[in-house]
Amino acid sequence: MTQTKGRKGIILAGGSGTRLYPITVSVSKQLLPVYDKPMIYYPLSVLMLAGIREIAVITTPQDRAQFERALGDGSQWGVSLTFIEQPSPDGLAQAYLLAEDFLDGAPSAMVLGDNIFFGHGLPEMLADAGKQTKGGTVFGYRVADPERYGVVAFDAEGRASQIIEKPEVPPSNYAVTGLYFLDAEAPARARKVTPSPRGELEITTLLESYLNDGLLNVQRMGRGYAWLDTGTHGSLLDAGNFVRTLEQRQGMQTGSPDEIAFGQKWITREELEARSKMFGKNDYGTYLAGLLK
């Protein structure tokens, strides 16, 4: 797949992870393991599957050094990583203000650092979203507990009519996932977002500005997709078990930037071989070596 022209990526990996205390007292939530890889590998792999090679990682000042150590500059995967500090977590829409200089007028795809996506048609779905030059695309996923999320209301024709943050009476079972394809206007629109009662720049308010202008496409993810967030102890364990089951049953990796980079021809056989030797004492290294055969 070719790179989405001009579109840049953002991974929002800030916050203090208080819901996961005490395991996140000393380490960023997005660096915790999800089975055999750091959590951030999974959202990174989503952006790479979308053909995006310029990516900003937004994290806290105290966690920045850990992320730089875990990810480097991205050259081992044929991508370019930029690290941006978020002094305080003031809402998801704040990411577009922090990344405005990095985006430099480019459209973006932002993914939350604790979200995991899986599905056979995922690359094609991402490619379709990336082709949109005006407005934005978000993804609705059916959940059993929509009151925990931003929820999409649909009109009689099945078109998205409203997005409501954590509604007491959800208008549907479709939650907005943590993956947002927005045009170059996102930072300017984010500047107009006023803080919510909890003092945050809500992503739902930003998305509603697109929706009210008829510029937001809500793509429903069907039964064949999995969307997991890993914000609680139970969901973190569930995500690890999900990945482990997939990999053991299929003998294929999930969320591997190394495999994606090699498949996209962003790295050479020699570079992948070096990575496989780096992980030579475990199954991940064995898997990467197997890709060369």
From TrEMBL:
Write down the required cofactor(s). Mg(2+)
Q: Name one Pfam family in it.
A: NTP_transferase
Q: Which residues form a coiled coil?
A: none
The family this protein is said to belong to: Belongs to the glucose-1-phosphate thymidylyltransferase family.
Listed EC numbers = 2.7.7.24
Q: Which residues form the Nucleotidyl transferase domain?
A: 8-243
Provide the function of this protein.
Catalyzes the formation of dTDP-glucose, from dTTP and glucose 1-phosphate, as well as its pyrophosphorolysis.
Q: Which InterPro entries does this UniProt record tie to the protein?
A: G1P_thy_trans_s, NTP_transferase_dom, Nucleotide-diphossugar_trans
Please tell me the species this chain comes from.
Sulfitobacter guttiformis
Q: Does the keyword Metal-binding apply?
A: yes
Q: Which reaction does it catalyse?
A: dTTP + alpha-D-glucose 1-phosphate + H(+) = dTDP-alpha-D-glucose + diphosphate
Q: Which UniProt keywords apply?
A: Magnesium, Metal-binding, Nucleotidyltransferase, Plasmid, Transferase
One Gene Ontology molecular-function label: glucose-1-phosphate thymidylyltransferase activity
- This protein is called Glucose-1-phosphate thymidylyltransferase
Q: Report the Gene3D superfamilies cross-referenced here.
A: Spore Coat Polysaccharide Biosynthesis Protein SpsA, Chain A (3.90.550.10)
What gene codes for this chain? rfbA
